[in-house]
Amino acid sequence: MKIKTELEALEAVQKDGMALRFVPDALRTEAVCLAALAHGRVADYAPAAAYVPVRLLAESATVCEAAVRQYGLLLKRVPEALRTTAICAARCARTASPCAGCRRT
Known about the structure:
The protein is built from five helices and no strands. By secondary structure, the chain is mostly helical. It has one domain (6-94). The chain starts with 5 loop residues before the first helix and ends in an 11-residue tail after the last helix.
């Protein structure tokens, strides 16, 4: 089934966050991505967070924190201006390596 509306996208990612990979980029809204992150696998390989568009990581601290909480290595895609204490703490919780590059505010 091809996803054609935001409602279809929400329904798909609420069943399985990994369905975000099948959602057209134009429909990957903040709401759809947050739902995918809430229902996605938390694993070290191919998490739903990997399919969050860079444009949302550049605009939304909420999406950044949810994505980094799921897959800590995405911190490198978070703009410096959005690297809050919460986002850096989310990254530290997901990975064993030190938080070089974190900006704690």
